[in-house]
Amino acid sequence: MIVPRPFRAALLDGVPHGFFGRSGGVSDGVHAGLNVGLGSGDDGATVQANRAAALAAVAPDACLLTPYQVHSATCVTVEAPFAERPQADALVTDRPGLAIGVVTADCAPVLLADVAANVVGAAHAGWKGALGGITDATVAAMVARGARVERIVAAVGPCIARPSYEVDDAFRRRFEEADAANERFFVDARAGHHRFDLEGYVVHRLAAAGVTRVAALGLDTYADEARFFSYRRATHCGEPSYGRQIAIVAPAG
């Protein structure tokens, strides 16, 4: 097995973690690379091999758990492996031997940890989940497990960046109706359209929840085809499907 090299955040040093792109996998065609998407239409055995390779780079002796993501604000705390993936967009655990992860293809993966409490979280923050409070729910679940907000550190991994993320007036209104100050996450584009800073908004939501030490990796999934899968890029190119990348975190052994 070729173990892929993940992107890591210095804030999470000492915590087994990694944000992966598409390099190092065995998928081919439109899914070429480290595609971990169970619903991508890729060969199932190939996807499982890619997941095993990613896990080996982070927590080789752990059991990897990922949710069935539905763009919600639901976070589930896990204590043991599950047979059926819960419909949720974040997981939290403090159990050594478990690794938790989320898959993305433009949405923002967020990994969180309180080293002292040995509690970790992984959240999938698309625009809908971010606006709905998925990071707030993850922080709350970590605190319920013994973490303290002031000790939690977080990292926002590869996601679509503002120069690549054009949205319409209705999209912008959703955010400004929630909080007029959200206008700062938009810049004007062509008539009736704007560019949205998803990464910046997620960092803001983490800070508003009390997580003030946050690393944003600043990696644009849409613009960097060689390194990342992108739903929006695949759609714009008329491709029949697209791969997903994974972010994984685990409690210290």
Task: Tell me about this structure.
With 253 residues, this protein is α+β, with helices and mostly antiparallel strands. It has one domain (10-161, 197-249): 4-Layer Sandwich (CNF1/YfiH-like putative cysteine hydrolases). The chain is built from 6 helices and 13 strands. A 6-stranded mixed β-sheet has the order 3-4-7-6-8-12. Strands 1-13-5-2 form a 4-stranded mixed β-sheet, with helices on one face. The protein is globular and about 50 Å long. The mean pLDDT is 97.
In summary, what is this structure?
The chain has helices at 44-58, 127-132, 134-144, 169-178, 198-208, 231-236, and strands spanning 17-19, 63-65, 75-77, 90-93, 98-104, 108-114, 119-125, 153-156, 166-168, 186-188, 193-196, 213-216, 245-249.
- Could you give me the name of the CATH homologous superfamily? CNF1/YfiH-like putative cysteine hydrolases
Physical arrangement of strands within the biggest beta sheet = 3-4-7-6-8-12
**Range of helix content:** 10-25%
N-to-C span: 23 Å
Order of H and E elements = EHEEEEEEHHEEHEEHEHE
How can the largest sheet be summarized? Answer: 6 strands, mixed
Total domains, how many?
1
Quickly give the CATH architecture.
Answer: 4-Layer Sandwich
CATH class: Alpha Beta
Number of helices: 6
Mean pLDDT: 97
Q: What percent strand?
A: 15-25%
CATH topology: CNF1/YfiH-like putative cysteine hydrolases
Structural class: alpha+beta
Low-confidence stretches: none
Q: Tell me, briefly, the overall form.
A: globular
Radius of gyration computed on alpha carbons = 17 Å
- The counted number of beta strands is 13
